[in-house]
Design goal:
Helix content is 16%, strand content 47%. With 134 residues, the chain is α+β, with helices and mostly antiparallel strands. The chain is globular and about 45 Å long. It starts with a helix and ends in a 6-residue tail after the last strand.
Length: 134
Amino acid sequence: MKKTRILLILTVLSLTILSCDPPAYYDYFIINKCNENIDVKIKACTLNCNTNYSKIVELDLQINPNTTQLIYSDDRTILPLDARMIDYFFEEIIITKGNDISKINYIDKDLWDFNPISKDHANSYLTITPKDFE
């Protein structure tokens, strides 16, 4: 009886561990191609922005000219990787340069360069240029 119980427990534990979906890792970067600093205000969701269970975290970043900076990382989604995840993670991204505020909706997935770097990790890049502020 004890052997059967132990075998049953080991089987259930094995199935539980092996049946978990691995997380997908997303890193979001901004490339500042402007000749001066840009300020980035982000409202990021610590849970899915598309549900009532989300918590918003506000981030304020400054990115130096001609640099690439990591702005957000997350690993709470499951595979497969998907370029459309931008609105899953972000509620709002506002970018300013001096007194100029960009009117562009940076939540638009088409503005981001989605680069899978492995089967479970992707980097996405948003390039900011002076034209964003015209």
